[in-house]
Design a protein that fits this description.
Length: about 230
Amino acid sequence: MSYIEARELSRIYTAGDSQIRALDSVDFTIEDSELTIILGPSGSGKSTTLNLLGGIDSATSGSLYVDGQDLCGLSEKGLTSYRRTQVGFVFQFYNLIPNLTALENIELTAGLSSNPLSPQQLLESVGLKARAKNFPAELSGGEQQRVSIARALAKNPRLLLCDEPTGALDSETGKKVLILLASMARVEHKAVVIVTHNAAIAPAADRVIRLRDGHIVGIETNANPVEMESITW
Ligand SMILES: Nc1ncnc2c1ncn2[C@@H]1O[C@H](COP(=O)(O)OP(=O)(O)OP(=O)(O)O)[C@@H](O)[C@H]1O
Ligand SMILES: [Mg+2]
């Protein structure tokens, strides 16, 4: 069995008598140590897919196995434990805790893990060593985004889910972040899933999943992905 297996996975939102098929019976697999990129236009179901993978949202139907466990069959308690122990999540809109400093935000998730990475070192690796004591409101959008990436890594999770992790970053900083995320798959052997609009990074991924209107319109695998360092956009 693959590390992740989605089978006929659907998430349908109901509002009055209209239904939004955010994800419509999709099938995909993801292996351990893989860098996967999910591409697709706005509204195609990318965040929905990531939220299901992260145990933040529950599917309407289908199955979603992560490490042999069907998330669709887990209780709320089981999902909480799954989120806490297995998943690092970089949110599209950061979701930092406003009354904790940058460093404290990272320390908070490090504290959930039995095997955390150093919050101080992570802050340094995203280029924010000097901003440890600043609160989120004192940081630019891109700086907050980098804190949220360090926070997701701090837990040292087996599965790292990143929703537009470079959306607020200039190309140079974005590239540094992508190199760091790629190293989490290549060196640390985590499964890393990145949602992005930036198709230019697809050659650096092991697997590219293309979504449109809640459907998968293509899955490509690269036997020999290029180094993230060599990508230009
Ligand atoms: N809580 C919700 N209630 C109703 N509809 C929702 C909800 N969340 C998402 N949707 C709808 O589901 C569809 C997929 O949304 P999703 O957030 O997954 O898109 P996305 O691919 O991440 O888009 P973007 O690139 O803009 O972030 C959209 O049509 C969206 O409006
Ligand atoms: Mg989204």
